[in-house]
Amino acid sequence: MCGITGFMDFSLQCGPDAMQANARLMSDALMHRGPDDGGVWSDQGAGVGLGHRRLSILDLSPAGHQPMESRSGRFTIVFNGEIYNHQALRKDLAAFEPWRGHSDTETLLAGFEAWGIEATLKRSIGMFALAVWDKAERTLSLARDRMGEKPLYYGWSRGVFLFASELKALRAYPGFDAEINRDAVALLMRHSCIPTPHSIYRGIYKLWPGTILTLRSTGRGIAPWDAADPPFKLFQGEGVSLRPYWSLLEAAEQGHARPFEGTESETVRELERVLTEAVLAQQISDVPLGAFLSGGVDSTTIVALMQAHSSRPVKTFTIGFHEDDCNEAEYARKIASLLGTDHTELYVSPGDSLAVIPRLPELYDEPFSDPSHIPTFLVSRLAREHVTVSLSGDGGDELFGGYVRHSWLQRIWKRIGWCPLPLRRALSDKIRFLPPDRLQTALSYLPSIDRVHAPVYKAYRLAELIRADSPASMYEICISHWQQDDPVVVGGRSAFRAPACRIPNRLDSFSMPEKLMLMDSVTYLPDDILVKIDRAAMGVSLETRVPFLDHRVVEFAWRLPLGLKIRGGQSKWILRQVLNRHVPKELVERPKHGFGIPLGAWLRGPLREWAEQLLDESRLAREGFLDPRPVRQKWLEHVSGRRDWEFHLWDVLMFQSWLERENRP
């Protein structure tokens, strides 16, 4: 795992020393992603500079140094990631023997020479972000893996094209124009992250997963696209193209068109075979390797398959909390004992968690407000004390219907869809504006509702959902914090959406749960889950790998009927059948817990003074990004205990904390 960066300066006014210096400034900003080695390369005649920081995983020798040139000298690459099938690719590239080393980077370059860039990526199984300069064609190509495991930002600043694994490398380029994108802030307030293709800066974007962006040096330069009209759609133009080499939507369509034919038991065995193949491939490493183990279905499945094919105990890691509502460590410990792993757990105090908060703006580099980024960082830091690579169970929920909303929203829509929208919205308003104590009293009269533990929060959430005019808008409400009718960003379009949220009409044959799973896979997964784990892990120089996101597993999952994923109200049914072959089901059959922290209580307690400073009314008005009125209203309601606005407030606090760092001299 590494960090990559570079630029293409069409003015050609920088001398070779300045180009090398600029590339080094940018790559040094990514030292945490690659503490083992670094290098820069430039071609003054083309205005291209490349920088790399290396975390050595495969081929620890100097033969793995980057930037790396192909044997003929035509291609120069900076590469972040792993190609798990690169040894198999080498067998098809026998003409390039003898090899200089055994890195997958060298394998990629040979593939580019033999088959071209796009054809090589289609043959490759892995996670990656890369940039490659083709001296013969005078093109710079950027590419990102199929599911978006590895990050890649790009865009224009003062006429120079820039790219990097993280924004901090772009900011290091002399004269970088860091204008904050208010529409992106509005998206952050809704989704706790900034969805692809946007970034916090105008004119800077995230590359779509599974795509290749190519710029051609024409000698006349390329006019940067208008930052107000970002490149959402694939397009072709003079000197620039953005095209897919793999599409999740197409993979899902094709899976529907040719479902797996076999009995249930045969399907379970085939899923285990495909998943085992992915797990074994992702264990290639020249450094110590382990896995996160939360005790849930997904991480337990990955660890069980690892241990089933290992002659030594797999190193596993979990963190525990002393608060029972947030603690799953005891389950992870029992599973580790049963499987015979070399297990390490660490119980953290509130002070340990709170100490991470000042680091978050630097770790995540742009505002990011999923509260589970705190425990994710803590478990990554724990694992890095013992290993350099850790496998993760992320992705199982999106592929196998693991979120409550995948089945719950369909049931709600069936019950409310018949009711005229004006009536539903009138009822919603009645509920939404009831004080919690009066709502608690009303709920207590309903059958099967506990008077003490009545789900007031769920009632407020349901009141928001019944306002939806379609299942798609109900999904958007479900995944949003600040809603469209509750704007908070000054000058930002609160109704602004990322295009990936719009599922094409051609998928109308998909059931509602399948559409929700697909939407989660193209938005929430790459923009939240994978961002969270990449930045947390790379912040401590730990490489993470996600076997569920091997594209062969993804494609097979979309060949399975919904009834094998959600059955009898149980999520991930078929995945549980695989797991039951290794672990007694009573160890993992419990309600979905999540990986959280007692955020609401902390905001009323140890974080209150810190939050009050960031949410000061005069400060918000002076900075001019957020409307103080709704922010202060929610803050006062939260600290008084009248309402629980922890997630809304955390969105604001993470932006304010990031902005404070941004404004530092």
TrEMBL record:
Site annotated as Important for beta-aspartyl-AMP intermediate formation: where?
394
Q: Which GO terms describe its cellular component?
A: cytosol
Per its UniProt record, what PANTHER family does this chain match? ASPARAGINE SYNTHETASE (PTHR43284:SF1), ASPARAGINE SYNTHETASE (GLUTAMINE-HYDROLYZING) (PTHR43284)
Binding of L-glutamine, residues: 104
Please report the stretch or stretches of sequence annotated as the Glutamine amidotransferase type-2 domain.
Answer: 2-218
Q: Which family, according to UniProt?
A: Belongs to the asparagine synthetase family.
> What single Pfam family name could you report for this chain, choosing any that match?
Asn_synthase
Enzyme type, top EC level: ligase
* Record keywords, A-Z: Amino-acid biosynthesis, Asparagine biosynthesis, ATP-binding, Glutamine amidotransferase, Nucleotide-binding
Catalytic residues? 2 (for gatase activity)
* Gene Ontology BP terms: asparagine biosynthetic process
Pathway(s) served: Amino-acid biosynthesis; L-asparagine biosynthesis; L-asparagine from L-aspartate (L-Gln route): step 1/1
Domain of life according to the entry: Bacteria
- The catalytic activity of this protein is classed by the Enzyme Commission as 6.3.5.4
Protein name as it appears in the record? asparagine synthase (glutamine-hydrolyzing)
Which PROSITE patterns does the record match to this protein?
GATASE_TYPE_2
Q: What is catalyzed by this enzyme?
A: L-aspartate + L-glutamine + ATP + H2O = L-asparagine + L-glutamate + AMP + diphosphate + H(+)
